[in-house]
UniProtKB/TrEMBL annotation:
GTP 1 binds at residues 9-16, 56-60, 119-122. This is GTPase Der. Residues 3-163 form the EngA-type G domain. It comes from the Bacteria. Belongs to the TRAFAC class TrmE-Era-EngA-EngB-Septin-like GTPase superfamily. EngA (Der) GTPase family. Associates with the 50S ribosomal subunit.
Length: 163
């Protein structure tokens, strides 16, 4: 069976953008409004002669902020039920938010590799600020920008190493 890699994180950090960027196709819907991805998206990725199935667990259609916690819980349950490796996405420009801490906390009990991806590091000087995410204690941090095409190969290498 092909290993599965699930993308999790609070709304609007760029999970669907990351999914499309890794896939090099526009499959998941990217939107400025939170919670656009309603269904789980999956695609087969090949990197360094290895294959994995990438999963965008999505925002499940959140309509108001009160449902964020339930939404994130649902997303994580889905990831935990299917994933061999988890990509936790955070926003390098916003810094650590309470919901990032909650997502991270919910992943703590699982014995599966987590890759911490600080997206929206559009310029290299933003990588330094992103180091604050290390305190989430979720393992190796990689700074990327899907819009500026930064560190895609580095991320793929990290994923493949953990399959
Ligand atoms: P999701 O809710 O986590 O799936 O987030 P989306 O992929 O829908 O993206 C949310 C917003 O972040 C959209 O406006 C994207 O254009 C924007 N975005 C995604 N990646 C980047 C990035 O690398 N840099 C910047 N500046 N914006 C990004
Ligand atoms: Mg999305």
């Amino acid at each position: 069976p092909v290993p599965r890699v699930a993308i999790v994180g609070r709304p609007n950090v760029g999970k669907s953008s990351l999914f499309n960027w890794i896939a090099r196709r526009r499959l998941a819907i990217v939107d400025d409004f939170e919670g656009v991805t309603r269904d789980r998206m999956t695609t087969l990725i090949e990197a360094n002669d290895r294959f994995f199935e990438l999963i965008d667990t999505g925002g499940m259609g959140v309509e108001d902020a009160d449902n964020l916690t339930a939404d994130v819980r649902h997303q994580i349950e889905m990831a935990l039920s299917v994933a061999d490796v988890i990509i936790l996405v955070v926003d390098a420009q916003q810094g650590v938010m309470p919901l990032d801490e909650e997502v991270s906390e919910r992943l703590r009990s699982i014995q599966r590799p987590v890759i911490l991806v600080a997206n929206k590091a559009d310029q290299s000087h933003q990588d330094v600020l992103a180091e604050d995410f290390q305190r989430l204690g979720r393992g190796r941090l990689v700074c990327v920008s899907t819009t500026q095409n930064r560190n895609r190969d580095e991320l793929l290498e990290l994923i493949v190493d953990r399959l």
